[in-house]
Amino acid sequence: MFTLAHLSDLHLGPLPKGSAYRHFAVKRAVGVMNWRLNRNRIHNPDVALAIAADITRNAPDHVALTGDIVNVAARAEFAAAARWLQAFGAPDWISFVPGNHDCYVRVAWQHGLAHLAPYMLGDMRVPLTQETAQIATPFPYVRLRRNVAVIGVSSGLPQPLHRASGQLGHIQLKSLAYLLSDLRERGYARVVMIHHPPLPGLARPRKALIDAGPLRDVLEEQGAELVLHGHNHEHMLNTLNSRFGAVHVLGVPSASTVADEHHPVAAWNLYRIQRQAGKWQIDVSIRSYDPASRQIGTLTEFALSS
Predict the structure, then answer these.
(1) Residue 132 and residue 98: Cα distance in Å, rounded?
(2) Which long-range contacts (CB under 8 A, 24 or more apart) does 280-287 make?
(3) Taking the CB of residue 199, how many other CB atoms lie within 10 A of it?
(4) C-alpha pair distances (Å), 99 with each of 46, 165, 169, 217
(5) pLDDT at 20
(6) What is the pTM of this model?
(7) Which CATH number belongs to the domain containing residue 14 in this structure?
(8) Residues 228-233: what's their mean pLDDT?
(9) What's the angle, vertex CA 191, arms to CA 173 and CA 238, rounded to 5?
(10) Contact present, 122 and 143 (Cβ < 8 Å)
């Protein structure tokens, strides 16, 4: 059995001083104002630490973090996020993919996501990959962990004001199709990590994955055992039928939410993955934060099968 933890959308605070004006960008300044007026009451760094501690106590074999570790892509945020991750666990134990807030505005690689590079490096050669000035580690990347292949794709890219959409692009889609086929033939359970919900209709247009339709087509053609995402700050479960069985698509709430009338409190998912009678069996435990007791417990459990 292989155990995998999934958390997302940490939105680590507080914002560094001068975030609105240092390396000024209009969208970042608006985001800082939004943080001060609203989001700082929703996202609590102590809750994020409690979620991380609960994951550590459960000792999963690997951790999937599906984006939005920062808020407005201020340079100092990335250094702080790197320190937070280093305290949480080693880069070979945690896999990260960027979200829209990690790419909130254009930030050169060396000043931004380079701080998180060790958590985005694969250990399998991928023939076709994509790099940008903002994200210079190759995507997709693959990490092979026993009989499970963790595939990271990046949907984060800078967007205009009031938009939070994402996009994979032709190169990542083509490479993902190849990887899903190759890894299936080699007997791996394939777990795809992406920040944005990967299927059409799962997010409002201004926040959606632009090429969700083509990604759905790849998943229908090649299959996958799990697709993990964040972005919507909701418990989500959708199932897609592929040529090779069910593709289970799961989203989690923000891992730092403590008080939000529109979204559930912080939670993370634990997946127990094993092969039984020629099929992949996945048992899911949802672990949720209780603001009253400040404890984390099991909200629900269920089983999925390919």
Answers:
(1) 13
(2) 280/189, 280/225, 280/305, 280/306, 281/305, 281/306, 282/225, 282/226, 282/248, 282/306, 284/250, 286/235, 287/54, 287/58
(3) 21
(4) 21, 10, 15, 22
(5) 78
(6) 0.96
(7) 3.60.21.10
(8) 98
(9) 85
(10) yes
Tokens of 205: 């247009």
Distance CA 181, CA 224 (A): 9
The total domain count for the chain is 1
Cis peptide before 45 (omega within 30 of 0): no
Is the predicted pLDDT of residue 279 greater than 80, yes or no?
yes
Give the Cα separation of 30 and 32 in Å (integer): 5
85 vs 55: CA distance, rounded Å = 13
- Helix, strand and coil content of the chain, in percent to the nearest 5, comes to 30, 30, 45
The confidence score (pLDDT) of residue 277 equals: 85
Q: Are 138 and 84 in contact (CB under 8 A)?
A: no
Give the pair of three-digit tokens for residue 57: 């106590």
With cut-offs at 50, 70 and 90, classify the pLDDT of residue 263: very high
Residue-level pLDDT at 259: 76
What would the two tokens of residue 243 be?
């040529």
Question: Beta-strand (E) ranges in 203-262?
Answer: 226-229, 236-242, 245-251
Length of the chain: 306
Residue ranges in the chain assigned as alpha helix (H): 26-34, 40-42, 45-58, 75-88, 170-185, 212-222
22-72 pLDDT per residue, tens? 888 899 999 999 999 999 999 999 999 999 999 999 999 999 999 999 999
Task: Extract the tokens encoding 21.
Answer: 């004006």
Q: Is 291 helix (H, G, I), strand (E, B) or coil?
A: coil
Domain span holding position 238: 2-305
pLDDT in tens, 163-219: 999 999 999 999 999 999 999 999 999 999 999 999 999 999 999 999 999 999 999
Res. 13: pLDDT tops 80: yes
Q: Which of 7, 199, 164 is nearest to 96 (CA)?
A: 7
